[in-house]
Amino acid sequence: MSEYRLQWMRRLARLEVYEIASIFMLLALFAVFVACPERIQHVIGFTAIANPLWSNTLTVLLRGVTWFYIAFALAFAGCVYMTRRQTDPVAIGLHRYARVALSFLAVLVVFDIINFYIAVFNPYDHDALLLHLDTQLFGATPSHWFDRVTCLPLTLLFCGAYASWFIMTYLTVFIMGCRSEQALREYVTAALLAFYIGYSTYFFVPAIGPEFTTHYQHSIGPLLKLVDGEGPFLSRDCFPSLHTGLAIVMLVHAWRHARKLFWFYAVDIALIILSTMYLRVHYGVDLVAGAALAVAVCELAPVLTAWWEESRERILAQTAYSERPTHVQDGVSEWA
């Protein structure tokens, strides 16, 4: 085995499961970008450059959010690089959280790209199907149950609960990190698996949600501020409900690793799940699918991380000889 290959095997072994998943998703989406330039250009509509791949690349580079991603990626990557060999606790903590931050930044990039790819490759909403399933299972979509009790205090409460999901998702990273390295590893792995599986499902079952497809007697104006975009670029991110999925992932890991905070999580998670129905963001089947996804990744994450730890030790042990000097000027054996 060549020295070059050994080095790459060791680099791969030092990655975490969630980092490998992020790299895989980004490479897969990049492959689609390279393989289908004409179709992507047709949706973008920018034809100033004859070559569609270069035209699409220029369009991406002209987006402000692209440079936002690049700036943060460089900042986090720089932090990872500068702290990679340091041994003091602060540097070790910075190194660990910067790697996690890079992975969550990849989640944002993947979400952005997949929502665009939906408009390119699968621009057909499945709201009618989801609404039909709700009617068959629950008699009506659950958001209609809350229509009769809509009022400003409840709207403000559930808007706050819905927004707290974003804070709690990342706050839980630090809570798990304070508990143990294993707790952090399992939580981030479960969270990112839920994100990536959920985003992939968005592509195959795009839907915009009951707020835009069904009639209600009362309006909840603040919902419009939670949704960005319009027309074909309105996010198709209903099925499954990742607000429900990630909320349950957080709750499970609070029970496993931060039992004292469990009831705090339980109250907030209950409000988050109710808010997805009150604010008319999700259908009932979205919540069922999100909960099922959460259970699956919470069971899978510990198994994957344990298997990868064993594989990591084996790979590092098998390639350890590559770090020994191959030529010793005084004639002492390589083993010595």
TrEMBL record:
<dbReference type="InterPro" id="IPR026841">
    <property type="entry name" value="Aur1/Ipt1"/>
</dbReference>
<feature type="transmembrane region" description="Helical">
    <location>
        <begin position="152"/>
        <end position="175"/>
    </location>
</feature>
<feature type="transmembrane region" description="Helical">
    <location>
        <begin position="102"/>
        <end position="121"/>
    </location>
</feature>
<keyword id="KW-0472">Membrane</keyword>
<dbReference type="GO" id="GO:0016020">
    <property type="term" value="C:membrane"/>
</dbReference>
<feature type="transmembrane region" description="Helical">
    <location>
        <begin position="287"/>
        <end position="308"/>
    </location>
</feature>
<protein>
    <submittedName>
        <fullName>Phosphatase PAP2 family protein</fullName>
    </submittedName>
</protein>
<keyword id="KW-0812">Transmembrane</keyword>
<feature type="transmembrane region" description="Helical">
    <location>
        <begin position="262"/>
        <end position="281"/>
    </location>
</feature>
<dbReference type="InterPro" id="IPR036938">
    <property type="entry name" value="PAP2/HPO_sf"/>
</dbReference>
<feature type="transmembrane region" description="Helical">
    <location>
        <begin position="187"/>
        <end position="205"/>
    </location>
</feature>
<keyword id="KW-1133">Transmembrane helix</keyword>
<feature type="transmembrane region" description="Helical">
    <location>
        <begin position="60"/>
        <end position="81"/>
    </location>
</feature>
<feature type="domain" description="Inositolphosphotransferase Aur1/Ipt1">
    <location>
        <begin position="145"/>
        <end position="297"/>
    </location>
</feature>
<dbReference type="InterPro" id="IPR052185">
    <property type="entry name" value="IPC_Synthase-Related"/>
</dbReference>
<feature type="transmembrane region" description="Helical">
    <location>
        <begin position="20"/>
        <end position="40"/>
    </location>
</feature>
<dbReference type="Pfam" id="PF14378">
    <property type="entry name" value="PAP2_3"/>
</dbReference>
<feature type="transmembrane region" description="Helical">
    <location>
        <begin position="233"/>
        <end position="255"/>
    </location>
</feature>
